[in-house]
Amino acid sequence: MLKRSIQVSSSAMTYLPAEPDHIHSSANGYKQRKVDSVLKRMNKLGKKADNLAQGIREHVRLGTKMSETVKGKLSLGARIVKVGGVDKIFNNLFSVKEGEKLLKACQCYLSTTAGPIAGLLFISTDKVAFCSETSLKFYSSNGELLRLHYKVLIPVEKIKRVNQSENMKKPSQKYMEITTLDGFDFWFMGFLNYQKAFKYLHQATSHQLSSVEMMYKCRSLAS
Protein backbone atom coordinates (compact mmCIF):
# COMPACT_ATOMS: atom_id res chain seq x y z
CA MET A 1 0.00 0.00 0.00
CA LEU A 2 2.89 2.36 0.73
CA LYS A 3 4.39 4.13 -2.24
CA ARG A 4 7.81 4.28 -0.66
CA SER A 5 9.59 2.25 1.96
CA ILE A 6 9.64 3.52 5.53
CA GLN A 7 12.95 3.83 7.31
CA VAL A 8 13.26 1.83 10.49
CA SER A 9 14.79 3.46 13.52
CA SER A 10 18.01 1.85 14.73
CA SER A 11 17.12 2.64 18.32
CA ALA A 12 16.90 -0.41 20.56
CA MET A 13 15.03 1.51 23.25
CA THR A 14 12.50 -0.62 25.08
CA TYR A 15 8.90 0.18 24.18
CA LEU A 16 6.98 -1.75 26.82
CA PRO A 17 8.29 -4.14 29.47
CA ALA A 18 7.93 -7.84 28.90
CA GLU A 19 5.02 -9.54 30.56
CA PRO A 20 5.85 -11.23 33.89
CA ASP A 21 5.71 -15.01 33.97
CA HIS A 22 3.37 -14.95 36.97
CA ILE A 23 1.08 -12.29 38.43
CA HIS A 24 0.56 -12.43 42.19
CA SER A 25 -2.86 -11.01 43.00
CA SER A 26 -1.94 -10.13 46.59
CA ALA A 27 0.79 -7.76 45.45
CA ASN A 28 -0.99 -6.41 42.43
CA GLY A 29 -4.54 -5.74 43.61
CA TYR A 30 -4.22 -1.98 43.21
CA LYS A 31 -2.53 -2.31 39.81
CA GLN A 32 -5.23 -4.69 38.66
CA ARG A 33 -7.89 -2.13 39.56
CA LYS A 34 -5.98 0.44 37.50
CA VAL A 35 -5.82 -2.03 34.63
CA ASP A 36 -9.56 -2.61 34.90
CA SER A 37 -10.11 1.14 34.79
CA VAL A 38 -7.95 1.49 31.68
CA LEU A 39 -9.73 -1.38 29.98
CA LYS A 40 -13.10 0.12 30.85
CA ARG A 41 -12.10 3.32 29.08
CA MET A 42 -10.71 1.36 26.14
CA ASN A 43 -14.04 -0.41 25.77
CA LYS A 44 -16.30 2.59 26.35
CA LEU A 45 -17.99 2.04 23.01
CA GLY A 46 -19.95 -0.69 24.77
CA LYS A 47 -22.02 -2.86 22.48
CA LYS A 48 -20.24 -1.50 19.40
CA ALA A 49 -16.95 -3.02 20.54
CA ASP A 50 -17.63 -6.41 18.97
CA ASN A 51 -18.48 -4.87 15.60
CA LEU A 52 -15.38 -2.69 15.70
CA ALA A 53 -13.20 -5.63 16.64
CA GLN A 54 -14.69 -7.63 13.79
CA GLY A 55 -13.91 -4.86 11.33
CA ILE A 56 -10.35 -4.66 12.55
CA ARG A 57 -9.91 -8.40 12.35
CA GLU A 58 -11.15 -8.47 8.77
CA HIS A 59 -8.83 -5.93 7.20
CA VAL A 60 -5.67 -6.37 9.25
CA ARG A 61 -5.98 -10.15 9.60
CA LEU A 62 -5.63 -10.48 13.33
CA GLY A 63 -5.59 -13.79 15.14
CA THR A 64 -8.11 -16.40 14.08
CA LYS A 65 -9.73 -16.34 17.51
CA MET A 66 -11.31 -13.31 19.13
CA SER A 67 -9.82 -14.44 22.43
CA GLU A 68 -6.35 -13.76 21.03
CA THR A 69 -7.31 -10.15 20.25
CA VAL A 70 -8.83 -9.64 23.69
CA LYS A 71 -5.80 -11.21 25.36
CA GLY A 72 -3.52 -8.87 23.43
CA LYS A 73 -5.50 -5.81 24.56
CA LEU A 74 -5.47 -6.98 28.17
CA SER A 75 -1.72 -7.48 27.97
CA LEU A 76 -1.09 -4.06 26.44
CA GLY A 77 -3.30 -2.32 28.99
CA ALA A 78 -1.45 -3.98 31.87
CA ARG A 79 1.94 -3.06 30.46
CA ILE A 80 0.93 0.57 29.86
CA VAL A 81 -0.12 0.84 33.51
CA LYS A 82 3.14 -0.77 34.61
CA VAL A 83 5.23 1.73 32.66
CA GLY A 84 3.30 4.68 34.04
CA GLY A 85 0.91 5.66 31.26
CA VAL A 86 1.08 6.58 27.58
CA ASP A 87 2.62 10.00 28.29
CA LYS A 88 5.65 8.37 29.86
CA ILE A 89 5.93 5.89 26.99
CA PHE A 90 5.80 8.76 24.49
CA ASN A 91 8.47 10.72 26.36
CA ASN A 92 10.74 7.67 26.54
CA LEU A 93 10.37 6.73 22.88
CA PHE A 94 10.63 10.09 21.17
CA SER A 95 12.42 13.39 21.69
CA VAL A 96 9.80 15.72 23.15
CA LYS A 97 10.20 19.48 22.75
CA GLU A 98 9.55 21.99 25.49
CA GLY A 99 5.86 22.85 25.51
CA GLU A 100 4.92 19.90 23.30
CA LYS A 101 1.69 18.23 24.38
CA LEU A 102 0.51 14.69 23.66
CA LEU A 103 -3.03 14.96 22.32
CA LYS A 104 -3.90 11.31 21.74
CA ALA A 105 -2.38 7.83 21.77
CA CYS A 106 -4.30 5.01 20.12
CA GLN A 107 -3.79 1.42 19.08
CA CYS A 108 -3.74 0.86 15.33
CA TYR A 109 -1.82 -0.80 12.51
CA LEU A 110 0.76 0.69 10.16
CA SER A 111 0.59 -0.65 6.62
CA THR A 112 3.93 -1.78 5.19
CA THR A 113 5.02 -3.80 2.17
CA ALA A 114 5.57 -6.72 4.55
CA GLY A 115 2.08 -6.47 6.01
CA PRO A 116 0.36 -4.51 8.81
CA ILE A 117 2.31 -3.86 12.01
CA ALA A 118 0.47 -3.45 15.33
CA GLY A 119 1.48 -0.61 17.60
CA LEU A 120 0.62 2.74 19.14
CA LEU A 121 0.08 5.95 17.18
CA PHE A 122 0.99 9.10 19.10
CA ILE A 123 -0.48 12.43 18.02
CA SER A 124 1.06 15.50 19.63
CA THR A 125 1.17 19.22 18.94
CA ASP A 126 4.56 18.72 17.28
CA LYS A 127 4.58 15.30 15.64
CA VAL A 128 2.75 12.17 14.56
CA ALA A 129 4.71 9.11 15.65
CA PHE A 130 4.27 5.34 15.61
CA CYS A 131 6.04 2.53 17.43
CA SER A 132 5.39 -1.18 17.05
CA GLU A 133 3.95 -2.96 20.07
CA THR A 134 6.70 -5.57 20.01
CA SER A 135 10.22 -5.71 18.62
CA LEU A 136 10.65 -7.12 15.12
CA LYS A 137 13.46 -9.16 13.60
CA PHE A 138 15.78 -7.47 11.11
CA TYR A 139 19.11 -8.37 9.55
CA SER A 140 21.95 -5.87 9.46
CA SER A 141 24.12 -5.33 6.38
CA ASN A 142 26.61 -7.88 7.72
CA GLY A 143 23.92 -10.50 8.31
CA GLU A 144 23.56 -10.00 12.06
CA LEU A 145 20.07 -10.67 13.45
CA LEU A 146 18.65 -7.67 15.30
CA ARG A 147 15.44 -7.15 17.24
CA LEU A 148 14.24 -3.56 17.00
CA HIS A 149 11.02 -1.66 17.42
CA TYR A 150 9.58 -0.32 14.17
CA LYS A 151 9.32 3.44 14.61
CA VAL A 152 8.02 6.25 12.40
CA LEU A 153 8.26 9.96 13.22
CA ILE A 154 6.51 12.61 11.12
CA PRO A 155 7.01 16.25 12.20
CA VAL A 156 3.77 18.20 11.84
CA GLU A 157 5.51 20.86 9.74
CA LYS A 158 6.45 18.16 7.19
CA ILE A 159 2.85 17.02 6.59
CA LYS A 160 1.39 18.00 3.22
CA ARG A 161 -2.06 16.47 3.54
CA VAL A 162 -4.17 14.00 5.50
CA ASN A 163 -6.74 11.85 3.72
CA GLN A 164 -9.54 9.58 4.92
CA SER A 165 -10.52 6.53 2.91
CA GLU A 166 -12.58 3.38 3.28
CA ASN A 167 -13.19 0.08 1.58
CA MET A 168 -16.16 0.65 -0.76
CA LYS A 169 -17.34 -2.94 -0.25
CA LYS A 170 -16.81 -2.81 3.51
CA PRO A 171 -17.38 0.76 4.78
CA SER A 172 -16.37 -0.24 8.31
CA GLN A 173 -12.79 -0.63 7.06
CA LYS A 174 -11.41 2.90 7.34
CA TYR A 175 -7.90 4.16 6.71
CA MET A 176 -5.88 7.32 7.27
CA GLU A 177 -3.23 8.43 4.79
CA ILE A 178 -0.57 10.97 5.73
CA THR A 179 1.46 12.43 2.86
CA THR A 180 4.62 14.39 3.64
CA LEU A 181 6.16 17.32 1.78
CA ASP A 182 9.05 15.09 0.68
CA GLY A 183 6.71 12.59 -0.96
CA PHE A 184 6.29 9.80 1.59
CA ASP A 185 2.92 8.15 2.21
CA PHE A 186 1.95 6.51 5.50
CA TRP A 187 -1.22 4.45 5.89
CA PHE A 188 -2.78 3.68 9.28
CA MET A 189 -5.74 1.38 9.91
CA GLY A 190 -7.54 -0.75 12.50
CA PHE A 191 -8.49 2.03 14.93
CA LEU A 192 -10.91 1.13 17.72
CA ASN A 193 -12.31 4.65 17.43
CA TYR A 194 -11.46 5.97 13.98
CA GLN A 195 -13.38 9.25 14.21
CA LYS A 196 -11.75 10.28 17.49
CA ALA A 197 -8.28 9.46 16.18
CA PHE A 198 -8.89 11.52 13.05
CA LYS A 199 -10.28 14.39 15.13
CA TYR A 200 -7.02 14.70 17.05
CA LEU A 201 -4.94 14.25 13.91
CA HIS A 202 -6.86 17.09 12.26
CA GLN A 203 -6.41 19.20 15.39
CA ALA A 204 -2.65 18.66 15.33
CA THR A 205 -2.22 19.34 11.62
CA SER A 206 -4.87 21.96 10.80
CA HIS A 207 -2.51 24.95 11.10
CA GLN A 208 0.20 23.26 9.03
CA LEU A 209 -2.24 22.16 6.32
CA SER A 210 -3.61 25.70 6.09
CA SER A 211 -0.06 27.01 5.63
CA VAL A 212 0.65 24.46 2.89
CA GLU A 213 -2.58 25.35 1.10
CA MET A 214 -1.70 29.05 1.24
CA MET A 215 1.80 28.33 -0.07
CA TYR A 216 0.45 26.49 -3.12
CA LYS A 217 -2.07 29.25 -3.79
CA CYS A 218 0.71 31.85 -3.74
CA ARG A 219 2.79 29.76 -6.14
CA SER A 220 -0.19 29.40 -8.45
CA LEU A 221 -0.80 33.16 -8.50
CA ALA A 222 2.89 33.87 -9.06
CA SER A 223 3.01 31.58 -12.08
TrEMBL record:
- Which Pfam family would be a valid example here? GRAM
| Spans traversing the lipid bilayer | none
Residue ranges constituting the GRAM domain according to the UniProt record: 88-166
Which InterPro entries has this protein been placed in?
GEM-like, GRAM, PH-like_dom_sf
The cross-references to Gene3D superfamilies, in alphabetical order and at most eight, read: Pleckstrin-homology domain (PH domain)/Phosphotyrosine-binding domain (PTB) (2.30.29.30)
Q: Which family does it belong to?
A: Belongs to the GEM family.
Designated name of the protein:
GRAM domain-containing protein
Organism of provenance: Acer negundo
